[in-house]
């Protein structure tokens, strides 16, 4: 059992918890808590650390697993939450090739994220994307690290099922999508009302930074500018809420109606 917070393995995990650079260099990230832990594809688990209490409680589920025991104190030291849940896993990162993702479906639905900064927003978008049947998420490198522990928790396991790509050149990706005949939509205050568009064919939606929205460069590349109509003095919605509305309008059009009015 690991009982010292000075243990080299403990220090490495702390580094992975705090540093996006370390997570990228080591090609891995952390997962915490039983619900998320049992969602991890087994072949992606690199290391696994459990308290004795957790190991006893989930004895049947853990048969065949390789893990190392840690003390309650070490678990508290490693945990990113106020109430540690007894399990921390080091998981291998896995991302599809951008070309593979773009060609995955005949009429795909993508969400392209430009410089989102809030971990909760990104996690919610990933989680909702699974529920709405989104093909994949593409984000620029300025977007908050998707492997941030807060993002991971917010996805509620969808991180393992929704394909996503981190790109160095989002404008180039937009051009690639357009060349494939995929219509690109950008949120804009002077755009058309979003529900008057037809999203039944290949579609990609641009979601911008929480404070500044989309850059002019990215907006200019869009085929269509759209807006979510607002009442009162509110000018815009939270990025995750906006994405959710667009995801489910796309699903509604594709699955529940034959002709968009």
Automatic annotation (TrEMBL):
InterPro entries assigned to the protein according to its UniProt record, in alphabetical order: Alpha/beta_knot_MTases (IPR029028), MRM3-like_sub_bind (IPR053888), Ribosomal_eL30-like_sf (IPR029064), rRNA_Methyltransferase (IPR051259), SpoU_MeTrfase (IPR001537), SpoU_subst-bd (IPR013123), tRNA_m1G_MTases_N (IPR029026)
Top-level lineage group: Bacteria
Molecular-function GO terms, alphabetical: methyltransferase activity
Keywords: Methyltransferase, Transferase
A biological process term (GO) from this entry: methylation
Residue ranges crossing the lipid bilayer per the database entry: none
Pfam assignment, any one: MRM3-like_sub_bind
Domain RNA 2-O ribose methyltransferase substrate binding: 30-97
PANTHER family on file: RRNA METHYLTRANSFERASE 3, RRNA METHYLTRANSFERASE 3, MITOCHONDRIAL
Similarity section: Belongs to the class IV-like SAM-binding methyltransferase superfamily. RNA methyltransferase TrmH family.
Name of the protein this chain belongs to: RNA methyltransferase
Provenance organism: Anaerobutyricum soehngenii
